[in-house]
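pasting for ref. prot 1 ->
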Amino acid sequence: MDKVEEIKDIIKECSNEILQKKKYQHAMVNRWTTVIIDKILGELNQKKYKFKYVVTSMIIQKGNTGMHSSTSCYWDNSLDGNCSYRWENDNMYCITSVYGLTY
């Protein structure tokens, strides 16, 4: 398994652990995203990869709303990288991205 797939699995596991049986609650979104990000960073640090990480996570209530997000990076494509994962249940989406920058 390559690093990107391994990191996607970490994102998926952390998202499932925190959100699996939850219903969207606006008051809890900040807490949930913070816990997801902290868990992902903890797992990544245990891997001992030679990366500095940036992790972002957003939770969006399902409904008749749209959402668009865009990101751009200036880095070395042969060494640095990113991956994203969209988790969802019946009432919300959680979109998490991990950026790995070599040092």
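and prot 2 ->
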Amino acid sequence: MGALALNLASVARGELQGAGTHAELIEKLNLKVGTEYDDYADFASGLLVFVERLKQQNESLCSNLKVIQEIDDEVRHLEAIVSTLDGYTATLETKIKNAYNA
């Protein structure tokens, strides 16, 4: 019976050692996965900063585009005025030539 008890104790010790080894492996895997998730979190934080900068630049560009559009509208208005004045000038020039020739 003593040999059976020693065999059972040996088997139990082997099982416990195997369980301890599995627990150590799981702990190492958990640490590795935790480190990778930390890396992902750092990467995500970097992306967030990048996206915020892009958002600010986009807002700045939109503001600048609005100013450009306002300037473009003013230029079109001035071009219309210049065209009208050009027509008046041509008419006046014709009247002056006709008066001079008459």
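The helical segments are 2-101.
Residues 2-101 form the longest helix (100 residues).
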